[in-house]
Amino acid sequence: MRPVRWGLLGAGFIASRGVGPALHAADGAAVQAVAARDLARAEALEPVRATTSYAEVCAADDVDAVYISLPNDSHREWVEAALAAGKPVLCEKPLGLDADDVAAMMAAASASDGLLVEASWNRWHPRTRRYAELVQALDGPLDVRAWFTFAGVPHGNYRLDPARGGGALLDVGCYAVAGALVALGPDAVVESAEQHVGSTGVDLTSSAVLASARGRAQVVGSFEQPESQGLTVVGDGWSVSLDHPSFTSWREPSVLRVVEDGAERVEEFEACDTYRLMAEAFSRRVRGEGDPAADAWVLPLDESLAVARVLDSVSRAAVRA
User: Fold this and answer.
1) Model-level pTM?
2) Which of 93, 125, 159, 284 is an active site residue?
3) Domain span holding position 232
4) In what order do the strands lie in the sheet with 189-197?
5) CATH code (residue 307)
6) Number of neighbouring beta carbons within 10 Å of residue 143
7) Whole-number Å distance between alpha carbons of 147 and 229
8) Is 93 among the catalytic positions?
9) pLDDT digits (tens, 9 = 90+) for 190-235
10) CB 310 within 8 A of CB 210
């Protein structure tokens, strides 16, 4: 089995901490090329070769798939470039700056008969997969609470720059919204929303109430509240909750709690590298191996589009302070 030879665009925190090491460790994958503005940072990921040219990696004959780990405002440009070069693409979340971006990238993937997947890495975690299985079987109406908050983004970070797709909603609120939509379904609408906007023009906190035929959800994403993550769904005689960290469990054991008719059971999950699970599943899909519903599962683009549409609706509906 020849490994899928990966080309990485970007060598920042996520690439160096998560993606690069995961690809080196993954079965059926290899780090072939890394492109970064700083050549030394690209070389630090230990690829076969390093470059400062994103276009070179996209066009390279010895690159089988491309991982895009660039700031949000660069996603669409390089997704479309990689797809045009015939490369399957795994792109950091959020896939686009808005739903129009996501729809355009989906159209590009369809036109080129290419594979495009949003790298919402927590979705590959066995606990997250189990959560989806449980809550989608719950009877409504459902009451969902989903939040991801932490205090403090360094000055000068792109997350504080509105032109680069900054803001808490796109950075961490997307986790909460995605978790809520797993329970409520893709047709959830925004009933109300609030945002606290900081001095640079990005939302430092976004909160919203979502609703669908299956129930309602309260979601929060924040750069200014104490560090906390939570995801809880309550139904008729049931509840399902993910212990902290609910979205970013990585290389550590995790727990899912289920209460049914007053009796609690705890489901435990071994420590795992979710970046590696994502890379291996995507690589199997590229090679045409494995079960698309199980070990070669990838996040469907229609789910990414549904999340993007809700994020857009939150921004449009928000009362700002």
Assistant:
1) 0.96
2) 93
3) 123-273+298-320
4) 263-269, 254-260, 238-242, 224-235, 142-151, 215-222, 203-212, 189-197, 319-320
5) 3.30.360.10
6) 15
7) 5
8) yes
9) 999 999 999 999 999 999 999 999 999 999 999 999 999 999 999 9
10) yes
